[in-house]
Amino acid sequence: MKFGHFDDAQREYVITQPDTPLPWINYLGCEEYFGLISNTAGGYSFYKDARLRRLTRYRYNNSPLDMGGRYLYIRDNNTGKYWSPSWMPTRVKLDEYECRHGQGYTIITSKLNGIKSSTRYFVPLGESLEIWQVTLTNENGSDADVSLFSAIEFCLWDANDDSTNFQRNYSIGQVEVDLESIGLPMKQEQAPALHKGSVIYHKTEYRERRDHFAYFACSEKLAGFDTQRESFLGAYRGWDEPAVVENGESCNSVAYGWQPIGSQHVKLQLKPGEQKQIIFILGYQENPKDDKFDPPGSQIINKKSAKKAIEKYLQASNVDKAFDELRNYWTMLLGKLQVTTPDEHTNRMVNIWNAYQCMVTFNMSRSASYFESGIGRGMGFRDSNQDLLGFVHMIPERARERILDMSATQLKNGGAFHQYQPLTKRGNNDVGSGFNDDPLWLVLGVSAYLKETGDWSILDELVQYENEAGTESPLYEHLQRSMQYTLDRLGPNNLPLIGRADWNDCLNLNCFSDTPGQSFQTTTNKDGNVAESVLIAGLFVLACSEMKGLADRYVERHTLNVTQLTFDVQPSTFYATAATEMEKTVWAAGWDGDWFRRAYDDFGHVLGSKENTEGQIFIEPQGICVMAGLGVENGNAVKALDSVGEHLATPHGIVLQQPAFSQYYLHLGEISSYPPGYKENAGIFCHTNPWIMIAESIVGRGDNAFDYYKRINPSAREEISELHKCEPYVYAQMIAGKDAATHGEAKNSWLSGTAAWNYVAITQAILGIQPTLDGLQIQPVFPCDWKGFTATRQFRGATYEIRVERQGKGNDVSLEVDGNPMTGSIIPLATKGSTVRVKAIVM
Ligand code: BGC
Ligand code: NOJ
User: Fold this and answer.
1) Is the CB of 226 under 6 A from ligand 1?
2) Stretch 46-72: mean pLDDT
């Protein structure tokens, strides 16, 4: 069953029924001001940091679902009937409803009692504000007398404190309201709080250490307003039946403490067919510390800069222009790669949604979604490095900045803080380090950046360790230390020690936690000198092959430019040898006969082997080891992948391991804390599925690779939305596995490494359009029954028009570039601004 449909021409997903199985959300903003918005206008907004600068309040895990949002109420003043044009929160049945989610905007359109309403929500580029552009049309044959009420609930900035520290918070809330243009009589005691303009200002804590405030403006003369929640709602009422809306009259309440809100009341008389546009702006503004108050010495907000933005965007023509700019921006970003294949799901995911999701993971990491509270996690070190693989071609300059920020948190011993805070850009001490795979992902991230951009200068950037002045050394040296970190931590079998965990945060082999509530991630009860990871071994070999590509070129570049190297650079042979040694170790201790093993636990017992009764085979090492090239020549790669097909594949995707853990194992940790089939305990953990797709393409099995791709492609799952439950336009972190009662049900949509890796798998492995250090490589491994496909790829300033034609069933490629046959599969770099025509014949 579907709850909407794709509109690919508009690059939108159109939801046609408001009661989707879960709120189906979208993101507003792409720079500093962000919002989450659901298909029924739920969600919240923040500036830069979802925890520390939260503008509006949201109630997690609430019932009814999705409480807190950008709400509007329409009231027919002739009948007294009222409803929400976004269906929530009143849930009054609408005659028409449609929600269009696009890139950075959402449009909700509905109709009831002959009143059509359409609201476009978006954040203009370069601004720290959001716009709600509302158009009301009277489609009745008679005059309409309607009231439009807006309603938001302010968060007192620190979202964590806001939802816990009530003894303080109920007394600190402050607002200012300007009523001059509203023409309302002011009560004497309110006078000090009132100022010019029909704007509600939220200024909690502005009197002390905060230099920022929020404003909520409306383009119309108001019939009234409210800023105190209980005055608006009425005692013991919910957002579904505010007393003010029911009565058709605002209380003009000014909040003193308790729960400040912003609600404006606009009265409209609409002739038959008449249309009226009303604009609301919710914005964030900072003032210089010494210019906070106007007049100076008062307690009144200096509103000069906010007023500029308000004046600009209360004009519809400026709003339309800003919206066009946003659309063009996304056309430009998505235009970096566009494909036309025989499969519509592939086309729309590659061209629109998967790329968009990659950009959202760039901005949010794992912080704010409907499954991540925005108060818990900072930016993950390994997460951000992997996310980079999916967005580097769209925003290389920001990828550069991200790499430098992240590597400045790296520890001197080459390890990494597991997370860092986006606002301070410092490593997060609460979580600390010791996740032994972390530093290796930096190598993959930097290498991907270099392949995309050819910007070798990044390797010379002086970057601190642990954000400590005086520790600066070239980024390249950080990569060397990342590699050395693994070599310095080998266990009894010579495999890398796992530390707190490797990629699988829930395989906690040194944790031994028997205390409820303890964090599996940060509790370590063993010294960690025994438990080893085959995944890290494979990842190390993979990172070695990236370093091999960088090492000699790095030295050569310095020799050519006659610049001194400030530290000892390991030659590429160092990585070749290290990789060979590690491979030997894997064959000796990490190969189980039919697949790669997973780990050795603290007792030195193997995991991911036929010797185990549960957890015999895991997906991660099969993917990563084959990606690193292990077993490709001796046939073991194919064996491992066949084992994946036999033991782990399901129609809904590939599960993480089998058999699932049926009970909690103290020595395994969080992985066994999940009921079988969920999350890391044998769920379809989508992040790892593309590793298998890439591995399948490495062994030349395009049909298998694409088959796995399709199983978890959300668009291809749209028809089973009632089962899948999450948005059909973005990947979810997990789909319940075959051991679960709800096999096929997705959870944790949006913020997952699944986005970047699926993008890499389909574009670079299956369609085979792969940036390399020397040029763009065309080496597709795609389904036998495809006649071919076309693609346009922007790469290093040139446009590549690629046409792939299948003439045989294999994967041998011969290239013709601008009409000339070429040997090899890497097209030498073209001049900037040129268009390169590539024909690839696949035999
Ligand atoms: C989740 C993991 C996550 C970890 C760290 C666990 O509960 O299952 O997927 O990476 O928490 O936040
Ligand atoms: C989610 C985390 O963000 C990621 O870093 C980790 O690799 C996976 N969970 C697997 O546990």
Assistant:
1) no
2) 96
Q: Strand, helix or coil at 108?
A: strand
- Give the tokens for residue 322: 């800003």
User: Could you tell me which of 675, 693, 808, 644 has the C-alpha nearest to residue 747?
Assistant: 675
Instruction: Outline where DSSP puts E strands in 413-534.
Output: 419-420, 462-463, 473-474, 532-533
pTM over 0.90? The answer is yes
Catalytic residue (one of 226, 387, 505, 739): 505
| pLDDT at residue 525, rounded to an integer | 87
79, two tokens: 């009948």
Say how many Å lie between the CA of residue 439 and the centre of ligand 2: 15
Written as six digits, the tokens of 75 are: 């009231």
% the chain with pLDDT above 70: 98
Q: What is the model's pLDDT at position 180? A: 56
Return d(Cα 303, Cα 291) in angstroms, integer.
10
Q: Could you tell me whether strands 105-112 and 33-38 are parallel, antiparallel, or unpaired per DSSP bridges?
A: unpaired
Q: 324 catalytic, yes or no?
A: no
Is 506 close to ligand 1, i.e. is its CB under 6 Å away? yes
> Which residue, judged by its Cα, is nearest atom 7 of ligand 2?
503
Q: Is 679 in the pocket of ligand 2 (CB under 6 A)?
A: no
Cα(27)–Cα(23) distance, integer angstroms: 13
The span from the CA of 511 to the CA of 667, in Å, is 7
Q: Whose CA is nearest to atom 3 of ligand 1?
A: 505
Which residues, at least 6 apart from 785, have a Cβ–Cβ distance to it below 8 Å? Answer: none
Residue 47 CA, chain-centre distance (Å), reads 16
Could you please report the per-residue DSSP string of 299-362? SSB--HHHHHHHHHHTSHHHHHHHHHHHHHHHHHHHTTEEEE-S-HHHHHIIIIIHHHHHHHHH
CA of 653 relative to ligand 1 center, distance in Å? 20
Ligand 1 center–CA 697 separation, angstroms: 29
Token pair in block for residue 277: 């546009």
Task: Find the 505 Cα to ligand 1 centroid distance in Å.
Answer: 6
Give CA 149 to chain center in angstroms: 32
Mean pLDDT across the chain: 96
CA-to-CA distance for 24 and 727, rounded, in angstroms? 5
Given this model, what pLDDT does residue 408 score?
97
Please determine, for residue 540, whether its predicted confidence score (pLDDT) is greater than 90: yes
Question: Which atom of ligand 1 approaches the CA of 674 most closely?
Answer: 8
Measured distance CA(292)–CA(147) in Å, rounded: 35
Judge if the beta carbon of residue 738 lies within 6 A of ligand 2. no
DSSP state of 188: G
For ligand 2, whether the C-beta of 681 sits within 6 Å is no
Atom 5 of ligand 1, residue of closest alpha carbon = 505
Q: Name the residue among 739, 534, 748 with its Cα closest to residue 623.
A: 534
Q: How far is the CA of 462 from the centre of ligand 1 (A)?
A: 33
Q: What angle do CA 192, 198, 201 make, to 5 degrees?
A: 55
Is the CB of residue 504 below 6 angstroms from any atom belonging to ligand 2? Answer: yes
Radius of gyration of the chain (CA): 28
Q: Which helix (H) or strand (E) holds 836?
A: strand 835-842
**Cβ-proximal residues to 173 (8 Å cutoff; 6+ apart), any chain:** 154, 156, 204, 255, 256, 257, 258, 259, 260
Percent of the chain topping pLDDT 90: 94
For residue 109, the model assigns a pLDDT of 99
CA distance 193 to 411: 50
Nearest CA to ligand 1 atom 2: 505
Reported as half-sphere exposure (CB side, CA atoms, 13 A), residue 213 has a value of 32
CA–CA gap between residue 161 and residue 169 (Å, rounded): 8
Task: Determine the Cα–Cα distance for residues 482 and 480; give it in Å rounded to an integer.
Answer: 5
Q: Whose CA is nearest to atom 3 of ligand 2?
A: 383
